[in-house]
Amino acid sequence: MQYEPIKRSVGKLFSGPLFLRKILYCLLDLLLLRTWHVKKALRTIRKELPDNASILDAGSGFGQYSWRMIRMNRHWNITGVDIDKEHIDDCNTFFSRAGLSDRVTFRVADLTSFSEPDKFDLIISVDVMEHIRDDESVFRNFNSSLRKNGILLISTPSDKGGSDVHGDKEESFIGEHVRNGYSIDEITGKLISAGFRNTEAKYTYGRPGNISWHISMKYPVRLLNRSYLFALLLPFYYLIVFPVSLILNICDVAFTHKTGTGLIITARKQ
Fold it and tell me: What share of the chain is helix, strand, coil (3-state, %, to 5)?
C-alpha cells in the first residue's frame, strides 16, 4: 500500500487558511500514537536543553513536530529538512504566515548527505529511518551535526511487527518502507558505531497501542487506498472509533512494554 499519495491529499485538504493547518496538527496529535510518545520524550528532554536551543527536525513532513516544539519554547531555533519539496514549501508558507519564520525554517535536504557540524542541541527524527536504506550514513551525519552532549530522538517501527509485518514472507503495510523495523540491538549498535553513547531504546505500540493503530489508522488508510469516496464516511467512523482509540493511546503511553511494534530511542553525542 502506498501511503505518500494519501499524505499529499491530506496536505492539500488542510492547506490554505491558518486554522485548517492548525486543525491538521491537532488531529495528528490526537490520532497518531507515535506523537504521544514523542511528546512524552520531549517533555523530559526539554529540561536538558538551553533556552536558545538549536533543533533539527529531520524528515519534517507536515511540520507538526516543529509546531509542537516551537510552542514548547518560543526561544528555540528550529530547522526542518525533508526530501519532499512540496512539504517544505507548505511548511515555510504556514510558519511564515503564523509569524514564526524567524525561529522556524524549512529546506529541502537528503539526510544521507546532510551535515552541519556541531550546530544542533537536539535532532528529532520521527518515522523516517524506515524509509532510508543507507541509515548508517544518516546516523553519522546526525552525530556530526550535534554539539557535544547533544541529544538524538528517534521514533521508528520495531522488528516485533512494525510496519504490520509478522513473518519473513510478509510485506510492509506501507509500500515506501525499505525495512520492516529495527531490533533494539541493531539500531543501538549502529548508533554506537556512529559515535553515540548512552543509547536508550523503549518499545512503544504495545498491545493497547497496536489495537489503536489498527482501528484508527490501518483500516481507514486501507479503505482510502481503494477509493477516496470512503473519505465521506470517515467522520462517522471516527465518531465511534476515536473514544476507544483515545483510551488505548493513554494506556500505551502510561505502561512499560516488554515488546511492541514501535521503538523510541534517545542517544547522546560523545
Answer: 50, 20, 30
Distance, in Å, from the CA atom of 162 to the CA atom of 183, rounded to the nearest integer, reads 10
Query: 210 in the Ramachandran plot: left (φ > 0), alpha (ψ -120 to 50) or beta?
Result: alpha
Query: Cα separation of 136 and 138, whole Å?
Result: 5
- Nine-digit cell at 219? 483500516
Delimit the domains of the chain by residue range: 4-205+256-269
Identify the CATH number of the domain defined by range 4-205+256-269: 3.40.50.150
Give the model confidence (pLDDT) of 58-87 as tens digits.
999 999 999 999 999 999 999 999 999 999
Position 56: which residue type?
L
What is the number of other CB atoms lying within 10 angstroms of the CB of residue 119?
17
C-alpha 26: how far from chain center: 15
> If 0-12 CB within 10 Å is exposed, 13-18 middle and 19+ buried, where does residue 233 land?
exposed
Tell me the pLDDT tens digit for each residue of 147-171: 999 999 999 999 887 655 545 555 5
Question: What is the mean pLDDT of the segment spanning 182-191?
Answer: 96
CA distances from 113 to 37, 109, 110, 128, 139 (A): 28, 8, 6, 15, 11
